[in-house]
Amino acid sequence: MGADAGAPLEQEDVTYCARHPQTETVLRCGRCDTPICPRCLVQTPVGARCRDCANVRRLPTLDVSPVYLARGAAAALASGVAVGAAWGFLLGDRLVFGFLVIIVIALAVGWPIAESVGIATNHKRGPTLQACAVVGVLIAYVVHNLVAGDAALQQRDQSGQIAALIAAAWAYFRLKA
Predict the structure, then answer these.
(1) Amino acid 11: pLDDT
(2) Quick one: which of 45, 46, 40, 42 has its CA closest to 19?
(3) Which residues lie below 8 Å from residue 38, measured CB to CB, with a gap of 6+?
(4) Whether pLDDT at 136 is above 70
(5) Phi/psi at 43 (nearest 5 deg)?
């Protein structure tokens, strides 16, 4: 046994977190050397950082401000009315189509609506813009029925409903983050 056997262990300097002054910590930011507690720690590829040095923020593509949301909603409304009117004029009343034609119709309805929302919002993406595009497809379906001379929502229009569902899914996934 050496001379150190009975000596107390040397204690590390204990400091307090810069954001939580009541929390003791021995952790420090790897960049600015600010004391941080485990609640404040942000693990980055180059080590532990404080929130300021980690520079945590949302991707610009997913950062949808109220202005962009309003632009996306307006684009969904306008394109939904335009696409629905074209769908109603070109294809008329409930025609029975094969499944492949229904898919083509759905893509022809969903793509321009999702694209118009994307263009109006500077190609931003996210759940709120996905909802705008889906509502735009539903508007297109209702406008299609009205232009074709039917009630707004048809109960026996399986082809149109399937096309609207596929179009809504296409528009939804087109704007997925």
Answers:
(1) 54
(2) 40
(3) 25, 27
(4) yes
(5) -80, 120
Q: What is the pTM of this model?
A: 0.66
Query: Are 149 and 93 in contact, with CB atoms under 8 Å apart?
Result: yes
Write the DSSP string, the chain.
--TTTTSPPPPPPPEE-SS-TTSEE--B-TTT--B--TTT-EEETTEEE-HHHHT----TTT---HHHHHHHHHHHHHHHHHHHHHHHHHH-S-----HHHHHHHHHHHHHHHHHHHHHHTTS--SHHHHHHHHHHHHHHHHHHHHHTTS-SS-SS-HHHHHHHHHHHHHHHHHT--
pLDDT in tens, 43-94: 888 888 888 888 766 666 667 789 988 999 999 999 999 999 998 888 766 5
Angle, CA of 158, 176 and 110, to the nearest 5°: 35
In terms of residues, how long is the chain?
177
Could you tell me which residues are beta bridge partners of residue 28?
35
Give the integer Cα–Cα distance in Å for 43 and 107. Answer: 42
CB burial of 29-55 (b: ≥16 within 10 Å; e: otherwise) equals: beeeebbbbeebbbeeeeebbbeebbe
